[in-house]
Amino acid sequence: MSITLVVGLGNPGREYADTRHNLGWRVVDALAAREGLVWKQQAAFHAEVVRWDRPGGKPLLLAKPLTYMNDSGRAVRALASYFKVSNASIVAVYDDLTIPLPLVKISLRGSAGGHNGVSSLLEQVGDGFVRYRLGIGPKSPPQMDLKDFVLGQFTPEQRQIVDQSLPTYLAGLGLLIDSGAAHAMNSLNRRAQHEPEHP
Length: 199
What we know:
Helix content is about 40%, strand content about 20%. It contains 6 helices and 7 strands, in the order βαβββαββαβααα. Strands 2-3-4-1-5-7-6 form a 7-stranded mixed sheet, sandwiched between helices. A hairpin with a 4-residue loop joins strand 2 and strand 3. It starts with a strand and ends in a 5-residue tail after the last helix.
């Protein structure tokens, strides 16, 4: 049975733990915690990794690259190569400034959109992986430097929204894993189009 590799993109280190750019890590962490899975640091893959053998479902490999965001592709390439995971079976979970908080969109192709982690994946692994995009937008104030915004922490109000949205993030990820990208895109992307933005 083929394995699906679910990668949360982020930066290692306590100073990055609660930043917008680490939302992908946070969601994958929440999934592991919910299932009682214990991360193991794997130097060969430059990542923390845990395998989840789900009853009646395809096995999942969860990973958090420890290479820093702009070199995420190196860890993903090492994992995909060793476990023989096709690009179509790689799910990258990451923050997306172009989507309003707390909406989620799924896409299969496209540019990196200025996201250094996605850029690294495209460079090291190639296109065709599934993108589970977690909205962190809009950038406020608009004139704020992009790097400062994504490496900044959520406001208390935004943090509350993220905390309340974690079950929704995990449900969407579960739908993607169990039902496939086409079905999940149909459901989640339509919801993202119709739900109002949070102020």
